[in-house]
Specification:
The structure is a single chain. The protein is α/β, with parallel strands linked by helices. It contains 11 helices and 6 strands. It has a 6-stranded parallel β-sheet, with helices on both faces. Helix 3 packs parallel to helix 4 and helix 9 packs across helix 10. The N and C termini lie far apart (about 35 Å).
Length: about 220
């Protein structure tokens, strides 16, 4: 029997939570295990329900979504976090990803893509909307210092790890990478773990962000 993905909804708008709950609970393989109206409640709800994935709003009272994401991702066994917001400024996107979010979607994203995001992120694959990816690339090209730093950091990887990092930045899953680079999935996972350790990163999304900073994806 396939594992059911446990989801926690965090948003200060009860109607938004209700809509997401109806959509996700009606999807096979996904169950909503709890809700929270701010980042502080999200911490307590995570303790109570042990979700696999947290759908996180950004602007909330008491504790905002970026702070809550950073605290959740600092745990020994953290849930994956997908930011779902109406505020898509470059600063919000970058702060959320650097806090450890594995995805960033806008609230007008189609239900099908939200479901896909939950499924992919639970499997360890980050997801960003195409428009956000383009903006990150454009921002990278305008910031030479970040470009040089990212290039220097990526240069510490082995050639094979470098190939895996670029594949991650292009949104490839572990299975895709295994096929493209002619290696086993276990080997791909080993390379990903090595990259995260070497570069002191938290998740695959941050690998992708670093590659974008280097202008390589």
């Amino acid at each position: 029997m396939a594992r059911v993905i446990r989801v926690l909804l965090v948003d200060d708008d009860a109607l938004v939570r209700a809509g997401l709950s109806m959509m996700l609970d009606g999807t096979a393989g996904i169950t909503v295990v709890g809700e929270a109206s701010n980042g502080q409640e999200a911490i307590a709800a995570t303790d109570a329900h042990a979700p696999d994935v947290v759908l996180m709003d950004l602007r909330m009272p008491r504790v905002d979504g970026i702070t809550a994401t950073r605290r959740l991702r600092a745990r020994a066994r953290p849930p994956e976090v997908i930011v779902l917001t109406t505020f898509d400024t470059d600063e919000n996107i970058l702060h959320a990803l650097r806090a450890g979010a594995s995805g960033f979607l806008l609230k007008d994203t189609s239900p099908a893509l939200i479901v896909e995001a939950v499924t992919r992120v639970a499997a360890g694959d980050p997801i960003l909307s195409p428009g956000i990816t383009r903006r990150l690339v454009e921002r990278t090209l305008a910031h030479t210092d970040a470009y040089e730093r990212a290039r220097a950091v990526l240069a510490t990887l082995t050639p094979r790890e470098h190939e895996v990092a670029l594949a991650i930045a292009r949104g490839r899953t572990n299975a895709d990478i295994a096929t493209e680079l002619a290696m086993g999935i276990t080997t791909v996972k080993s390379h990903v773990s090595s990259i995260l350790t070497k570069l002191d990163l938290d998740n695959r999304t941050q690998i992708a962000l670093l590659a974008h900073d280097a202008g390589l994806a």
